[in-house]
Write a structure and sequence with these properties.
This protein is mostly helical. The protein has a single domain, classed as Four Helix Bundle (Hemerythrin (Met), subunit A). About 55% of the residues lie in helices and about 0% in strands. The longest helix has 20 residues, at about 1-20. The radius of gyration is 16 Å and the shape is globular. The two termini are about 25 Å apart.
């Protein structure tokens, strides 16, 4: 199961890199349509979510504390203060977080992962264990935000990356 998660996680990271390559720092605050999340929030959110996944694996957060305030679930994407973190810093944090999570997963304590999770936001969902939440953070959650990021890129008039 770990191999499958890592394969999908690597796929998501590759997709993020392909999409982000065509976005400039000047694009970070631009939503593709009214009400859509801008790239700065999407990339920042994906970065801090690597910290959430790392915590489930016993690791400490690595993203700046202010990013957790700006990009956490429930924050307002339109209210990210300027100056924005650079695309390089945001994507770099996602890559570093990805590596931390992948390494920690190899050594994960499966008994701890099979314990009930404590994520209040997801209590009413069918995700019941730490492993369920970790799998979500490595697959379905980034996929949702990769689609948003792709819309930002496509809003620049660019074709699909895949």
């Amino acid at each position: 199961m770990k191999d499958l998660l890592l394969t999908l996680y690597d796929f998501q990271l590759g997709y993020i890199k392909m999409i982000a390559k065509d976005l400039d720092d000047d694009d970070l605050g631009k939503s593709p349509f009214p009400g859509a999340n801008p790239p700065v929030w999407i990339l920042g959110h994906l970065a801090v979510c690597t910290d959430y996944a790392a915590r489930l694996l016993g690791e400490r957060p690595a993203c700046p504390k202010e990013w957790h305030k700006q990009f956490a679930p429930g924050t307002k994407p339109a209210e990210v203060p300027q100056p924005y973190p650079s695309k390089r810093d945001l994507v770099g944090a996602i890559i570093n977080g990805h590596e931390r999570v992948a390494t920690a997963l190899h050594n994960a304590d499966m008994a701890k992962l099979n314990e009930p999770h404590a994520v209040e936001l997801l209590k009413a969902s069918n995700l019941k264990t730490n492993a369920d939440v970790l799998a979500h953070l490595m697959t379905t959650h980034p996929a949702f935000h990769v689609a948003q990021l792709s819309a930002c890129r496509r809003g620049k008039g660019l074709g699909p990356v895949i």
